[in-house]
Amino acid sequence: MRSVLAGALVAGVLFAVPASADAPSSWESSPDVSGFQALLVLFLIPLGLFLVISLLAALPSLVKGDSYEPGQAWRSEGEWFGGPLKGVAGADQVDSKQLESAGDQGGAGARF
Amino acid sequence: MSATSDGFSAGQRAAIDKAIREAETASRYEFSVYVGAADGATRPFAERLHASLSTPARSVLLMVDPAARMFEVVTGAEVRRVLDDGAVALAAVAMQTDFASGDLVGGITRGLQQLAGAARSPQVLHTDNP
């Protein structure tokens, strides 16, 4: 009995063949894909998308120039954080009377 | 020759805005920061900027002129009662270190933190009025 089982197992291994079956006739037959089409879909289109997205990401800094990095010289226009809506133009309109009404200003300054 | 820049990045602007908000929340005074070239002498220009704010008496202005390598802190009359010129000078020393190393954003945020910290310290009668 044991030898029969072992023989069946060995025969199963020796005579094993890949399973194969025809596609059902109701399925649509897929068109043949050429090598160029495969290359286009798998490599060229992703590469093109990569280049376009990279360009779009880099475009703002290319147009505006590089943003400030520590140690760089500053050449940009003035920026006022928390300033009035008029911006620096409002400061140009400040006269001596308004400056006096601002009160006793204090503070400190330094070079660096 | 050093490289040049075209202003702050969005992240750097956000960091400065955040530092301003935190300083205002901590001290209950108004803070604003101007970074750019002064039109004329630095101190009078900073004082004009400060005077053009909506509530100058309750405001602190930090003006940094990176090209001239100078900065000014202007405090309003009401703020000055709490944040005296000595405390501002201490904060200026801290900012000076960062600015000198080329770190504008770091100097601004550190300066605002220090100014706000000094502005919120309560006055104590037995030490302030001997």
Short summary of the structure?
The complex is a heterodimer of chains A (112) and B (130). Chain A is mainly alpha-helical and 112 residues long.
How would you explain this protein's 3D organization?
The complex is a heterodimer of chains A (112) and B (130). In chain A, 48% of the residues lie in helices and 10% in strands. With 112 residues, chain A is mainly alpha-helical. The longest helix of chain A is centred in the middle third of the chain and has 30 residues, at 35-64. The mean pLDDT of chain A is 83. With 130 residues, chain B is of the alpha+beta class. Chain B is built from 6 helices and 4 strands; from the N terminus they run βαβαββαααα. In chain B, α2 (42-51) links the parallel β2 and β3 (59-65). In chain B, α1 packs parallel to α5 (104-120) and α4 (85-100) runs antiparallel to α5. The radius of gyration of chain B is 15 Å and the shape is globular. Classes of the chains: A mainly alpha (112), B alpha+beta (130). At the A-B interface, β1, β2, α3, α4 and β3 of A face β1, α1, β2, α2 and β4 of B.
